[in-house]
Write a structure and sequence with these properties.
Blueprint: E1 14-19, H1 43-58, E2 63-66, E3 84-87, E4 90-93, H2 104-114, E5 119-122, E6 134-138, E7 141-146, H3 152-162, E8 167-172, E9 189-193, E10 196-199, H4 206-214, E11 218-221, H5 224-227, E12 235-238, E13 241-245, H6 249-257, E14 261-265, H7 268-272, E15 283-287
Parallel strand pairs: 1-2, 4-5, 7-8, 10-11, 13-14
Antiparallel strand pairs: 1-15, 3-4, 6-7, 9-10, 12-13
Length: about 290
C-alpha cells in the first residue's frame, strides 16, 4: 500500500508539504514589537521571499499545498511546523503556548483534514506542545524538548496518543532568555542524515549530545554568530541535501566537507526577522523512510 502521508523522519526524502503564505496587511504589522520581531516587517519582501522559498522546494519535486487562513493578522502563522505533526496513522494537532498564536491549531487542522489525513489525536487542556520541540531521531524514536513552549503534560499526552507508534523521551531545554523568547529544540539541532547532525553545542542539552554520541551521529558545530542567523535550523530535503538561509558561510562549508549538498535561499524577512528557520516554514506531510 502506497503511503499518502506520514513524516516520521527528519531526513527521509521530502515528498509533500503544507505551507502558509504571509497574508498580513499593513494594519496588521503596527504591533510588530509584541511579536518579538527584530524590525517592522516588510510585507512585500516577505511575500517575495516566501514565494521564492516555495518555488525552490517545488523545483526539488516536492508537492506543495497551501493552507487557507482567514486570520491574516497572525504573523507567525507562516511557521506551519508548530501546530501539528503528521504520523503514519494521521495528524497530531498540537497546542501553542504563545497567546498570539493560539487558534492556529484549529485552522491548520481544517487544512490537514482537507488533504484527507485523519486526525489521530489532539493536545488539550493545560498541556502545551509545539512542533519545533519534536525531533524524530528515527521513524520510531522521538525526542521532545521540554521548554517554555512544550510542557510535561503535553509530552505525556503525546505519549498516550502515539502509544506503540514511537518511543518518546524528552530533554530539558535551557532557560536562555526566558519565556518571552522562543527557544525550540529544533533551534539547536538539525539532522542532515541518519549519522550526521548540525548542533549548536553551547545551548544543547547534555543528554541530547549523549544520545547522539551513543548512535554514532557525527556533529557539525554551528558557530555562535551563525546560530543567530538560523545556521542551525535547516530543512533536510533528503539525506545529505538541505536548504538553508543564505549567509551562513562557515556552516555551509562545514556541511560541504561532509559531502552535503546545500541550497541557499533569501530569508531576511521570513526567517531572520521572525527568528524561524526553513524547517519552521513547512508542515512535513510525507517523507520516504
Amino acid at each position: 500500500m502506497v503511503r499518502t502521508y506520514g513524516s516520521q523522519s527528519m531526513v527521509g526524502a521530502l515528498k509533500k508539504i503544507l505551507v502558509r503564505s504571509p497574508l498580513e496587511e499593513e494594519n496588521h504589522i503596527k504591533d510588530w514589537k509584541k511579536w518579538g520581531y527584530a524590525r517592522k516587517p516588510n510585507i512585500r519582501l516577505a511575500r517575495e521571499e516566501h514565494a521564492n522559498f516555495v518555488e525552490t522546494i517545488k523545483a526539488e519535486g516536492v508537492i506543495t499545498f497551501f493552507a487557507h487562513d482567514v486570520h491574516r493578522e497572525r504573523l507567525d502563522a507562516i511557521f506551519t511546523s508548530d501546530p501539528a505533526i503528521i504520523t503514519d496513522r494521521g495528524a497530531v494537532i498540537l497546542k501553542m503556548s504563545k497567546a498570539l498564536r493560539m487558534g492556529e491549531e484549529e485552522t491548520l487542522s481544517e487544512n490537514i483534514a482537507k488533504l484527507e489525513i485523519p486526525i489521530l489525536g489532539r493536545i488539550q487542556g493545560e498541556a502545551t506542545l509545539e512542533g519545533g520541540d519534536v525531533l524524530w531521531l528515527d521513524s520510531k524514536t522521538i525526542i521532545v524538548g521540554r521548554s517554555y513552549r512544550s510542557n510535561t503534560e503535553g509530552i505525556t499526552q503525546l505519549k498516550n496518543i502515539l502509544n506503540d507508534l514511537a518511543n518518546i523521551s524528552h530533554v530539558d531545554l535551557p532557560h536562555w532568555r526566558g519565556p518571552g523568547e522562543c527557544l525550540h529544540l529544533l533551534s539547536l539541532i538539525s539532522l542532515i542524515d541518519e549519522d550526521l547532525a548540525l548542533v549548536y553545542p553551547e545551548l544543547a542539552p547534555i543528554s541530547l549530545l549523549e544520545r547522539l554520541k551513543a548512535r554514532n551521529i557525527k556533529i557539525i558545530e554551528v558557530p555562535g554568530r551563525e546560530f543567530n542567523t538560523q545556521g542551525c535550523n535547516v530543512l533536510t530535503l533528503k539525506p545529505r541535501k538541505c536548504l538553508m538561509v543564505e549567509g551562513n558561510h562557515k556552516t555551509r562549508r562545514a556541511l560541504e566537507k561532509e559531502d552535503v549538498e546545500v541550497i541557499e535561499f533569501q530569508g531576511q524577512e521570513i526567517c531572520l526577522n521572525r527568528t524561524g528557520g526553513p524547517s519552521c516554514l513547512v508542515c512535513s506531510i510525507l517523507r520516504e523512510y
